[in-house]
Structure formats: C-alpha cells, structure tokens
Amino acid sequence: MSWSILRTFCHWLLVVAVLVAPIICAAQDQLRMRVETLTVPPATGPLAMVMVQNPGSASWEGQIVLRPPSSWELSPDTRAVRLESGQTKRLAFNIARGRNLETNRYPFEVVAIGPDGEMTHRQETFVASAPFFRVQVDGRPDEWGDAIPISFSTGQRETTISTYWSRRQFSLLVAVDEQELIPSDASDRSSFDAVQFALAAVPPPDQAPESGTAGRFEFLLAATRNGGARCFRLVTPDMCLNEATRPRALESLVCEQVEVAVWRNDGITYYECSVPFRSLDNAILPDAGREFFFSVLVHDPDGTGLRELARHAKLWPTPEDPQAWNRWEGGCWDDVSPLGNKIRWGLCTSKY
Q: Is 163 a member of any domain?
C-alpha cells in the first residue's frame, strides 16, 4: 500500500472514530442501572427489580432487557420505558423459574437499548431476607444455620451478615474476620470495633418522605472489656437530620431493650442481637413478605477501617449520603461519606 493511500485511509478512520465516539459515549453515560437485592428467595420469589436512572439533560426512551442467571426464566424479560431528565424508575421482572444458590450470589446483566445504541451493566446481587426463626441471643452461632448469609470482602477480610425474624423481634448476626477485638471501654484506645446498623420503613409509593427528619432507627453494637456487650440507640425517625448526623457521645444512649452478645472465636468476632419490633414504634410490622430498608457498617479501626454492606449491594452515591449515618465518637470516619442505608430487605417464611 502506497503512503498516500495509507494516509487517506488513516484520515477517514480518524473521521469515523470522531463521529462514532460521541454516540458511544452518549449511550454509555446516559443511564444508570442497578439490580436490586432479592427480598424473597428466587425459587419462590415472584419478582426481580431493576432501578434505572436518567441523569442526562434530555429524555430517554427505549427498552430494558434483564438477563438472569443461567437456568432462570423471566416472563417477560424486556420492559419498555421512558425516562425524563433526572427521573428514576423501578422496573419489575416476573421470575417464571428461579433457583436458590448456596453462595447467595446471583449474576445479572441489564441491557438498555435506545436511539443511541446499547448499554450493558453486569452485576451480582444477593437475597436480602430474614427467614422466620426465634433465636436466643446467647453466643451460639450454630442456631443460624437456617439464615440466608450475605458475605463480602473488604481488604481481604470477610464479613458475613445473617438475619432472622419472629413475631416479636428482628435478629441480626454479623461475623467479622479481624485481627483483634477492641472493646468500647478500652482506656488506651480512642476508637473501637463495632457494628452499626439502620432500619427504616419503606414509605408507600404515593407518599413523599418527611423532609428534615432522619426517618430511620440506628443502633450500635460493641463489646466491653469484661466480656459483655452493649447496644446504643443512635437515631430515631423523628430526630432532625442535623442532630442525627452530628457526632454523639455514647454513654447516655445505652438501649436496654435490645438483647446483645459479642464474642470471639478462631479469629472471628461475632455480634448478635435481637431488636423488639415494639421498640421500633410499629414502623416495621412482623409479617411474611414485608419489605423495609436495612444496612450495616462494620468499624474495624486497627484493620480494614470501615466496611460497607451498601457497596456490596451496589447502591449509587447520592447527595443525601452524608446524612445517612450518625458519626458517633470512636468510629472509623474519614473525609469520604459512606453510602446510604436504604438496602431493600424482606421477611420470608424460610430460605427454602
């Protein structure tokens, strides 16, 4: 090939690249997509939910295709949608056939097909549900064999979260792989190991959340030097947002209503607790199929720092994140706010 022909070819190749690149970028940048957690085990669960957001300045119209794990069937697997600028929608896909996985990791692929081309988002999600079982808070993790554990890694250290419910209480077990357990009353430490979690009701679709208030319950679990444990109630729903975010001294916030145990075995620290539903002011009712918002932060000051369940759930960063968690004194806080606390969770009859 002569030099002149090669130069002409490269010129037109550059022209094509310049013309096509904005179209590809527009398709890639226009939508945000996320598969929500499954609030019912897929073998019995009717729906998979996809969040779609249009952050662009123009409206978007097209199709959203959900491709589930192998051996699953969705009916249908495609939804037509129109999104105005800044609009977010939840799209429901019926699970005609699903299969439970022991790993509790479910790979999905979401494809947006619009006027500017296709955009593909690949993501794993998990079953976020509490089976029905009344656990005794007594430091025996063997009682948790019928839960649906969610495991994730932070800095090569694993955290596993399990939940149960009964007619009277919501129960939580968090297993933290960490180098050392620092109790809350350690006199030589300014920070300590702890588990922080938030619970909130899901408002009806036609009801806007009350502005200016926290809208959630928030608790903190920590060990003491004598082998005991304490629970602190950090936030209540009616608390104003500024107060709910402000650092708080813990001694006046001890919550005797919550049963709690913290112990350590073979390099794993276990946090176990039961929160009475009556202490949640009927915000979450104990009924199978009930959905609510839930999330967990693990504080490991001498190891990984802050561990966030929301990152494993693939929540999007939002402007509201700085007000999503109380920054209590002694926690693993830095200049970057953790993600929000609104992971969809459910109450189910059984993991089977």
A: yes
In tens, the pLDDT along 257-311 reads 999 999 999 999 999 999 999 999 989 999 999 999 999 999 999 999 999 999 9
Q: Please state the domain count of the chain.
A: 2
DSSP code of residue 349: S
For the whole model, what pTM was predicted? Answer: 0.89
The position carrying tokens 């005991």 is 228
On whether both 103 and 189 belong to a single domain, the answer is no
Do 160 and 113 reside in the same domain of the chain?
Answer: no
CA distance 37 to 29: 24
Q: Are residues 178 and 321 in the same domain?
A: yes
Residue type, 57: S
209 has pLDDT over 80:
no
b (16+ CB within 10 A) / e for 286-297:
beeebbbbbbbb
DSSP result, 110-179: EEEEETTEEEEEEEEE-B-EE-B-----SS-GGGGTTS--EEEEETTEEEEEEEEE-SSEEEEEEEEE-S
- For the beta carbon of residue 273, count every other beta carbon within 10 angstroms: 24
10 located within any domain = no
- 306: domain CATH number is 2.60.40.1190
* Residue where a domain terminates, one of 90, 106, 125: 125
**Residue type at position 110:** V
Distance CA 151, CA 162 (A): 9
Question: Are residues 235 and 256 both part of a single domain?
Answer: yes
Domain hosting residue 84, numbered range: 31-125
Rounded CA-CA distance 72/45 in Å is: 12
Strands (E), the chain: 32-35, 47-53, 60-67, 73-74, 78-83, 88-97, 106-114, 117-125, 129-130, 150-154, 157-165, 169-177, 194-201, 217-223, 229-235, 259-265, 268-276, 291-300, 305-308, 343-347
Q: Residues 125-151: what's their mean pLDDT? A: 96
- Give the 3-state DSSP-derived string for 83-109, with helices as H, strands as E and coil as C: ECCCCEEEEEEEEEECCCCCCCCEEEE
Kindly state whether residues 105 and 149 are assigned to the same domain: no
**Phi-psi category of 215—alpha, beta or left, where left has phi over 0 and alpha has psi -120 to 50?**
left
Q: Is residue 11 part of a domain?
A: no
